[in-house]
Amino acid sequence: MEFFSNNLRVLQYDSRKEWKKLDLPSNRSEWMMSATSTNAYYSASLNHFVISAGILQPPFYDVDYPKLINFAAMGSIMGHEITHAFDDSGRLYDKNGNLNHWWKNSSVQNFEKRAQCFVDQYSSYEVLGTKLNGKLTLGENLADCGGLKVAYQ
User: Fold this and answer.
1) Of 88, 94, 140, 144, catalytic
2) What are the Peptidase M13 C-terminal domain coordinates in residue numbering (predicted)?
3) What are the tens digits of pLDDT across the range 97-107?
4) Is residue 144 annotated as part of the catalytic site, yes or no?
5) What Å distances lie between residue 50 and 29, 137, 150, CA to CA?
6) CA dihedral sign of residues 130, 133, 136, 140
7) Over 67-96, what HEC string results?
8) Contact assessment for residue 151 and residue 75, using Cβ atoms and an 8 Å cutoff
9) Model confidence pLDDT, tens digit, residues 91-133
10) Whole-angstrom Cα distance, residue 136 to residue 8?
11) CA-based torsion, 99, 85, 132, 38: positive or negative
12) Quick one: average pLDDT of 49-63?
């Protein structure tokens, strides 16, 4: 029982710490995950992406892999995160991380037309009897394809 009580206290401490941040300006140097996480993310409000050191392990990276595989994997991850800056939500933020309509109307219309192709394609897929919702997964689908394209180039 002591283990659970200690865990609860840690969660309460972390929650209080996060709530106190609401009144403070954004800390642009703070990461949203630990360095050992096997993950990467793009922050539109900070206009940066982070790839944690934890991702430098198989299947993403290995010193025994051929260099081209390691470079392709890292390029794909970086391309994925950079593409989020121009996906359905990232495109709404300007270079300073402010919510701002900065695209020309013709660019928005062109994006929406092309994005609808992704929505339609992914909505046609079914996994284990469940139909996918291409609208809900649009940002990730765009980023996956963008990351692969960058890695291939």
Assistant:
1) 144
2) 39-153
3) 999 999 999 99
4) yes
5) 11, 21, 17
6) positive
7) HHHHHHHHHHHHHHHHHHHHCCCHHHECCC
8) yes
9) 999 999 999 999 999 999 999 999 999 999 999 999 999 999 9
10) 33
11) negative
12) 93
pTM of the model: 0.79
Query: Choosing from 23, 64, 81, 94, which is the catalytic residue?
Result: 81
The answer to whether the beta carbons of residues 37 and 20 sit under 8 Å apart is no
Q: Are residues 97 and 48 in contact, defined by beta-carbon separation less than 8 angstroms?
A: no
Average pLDDT across the chain, whole number: 91
Q: Is 18 a catalytic residue?
A: no
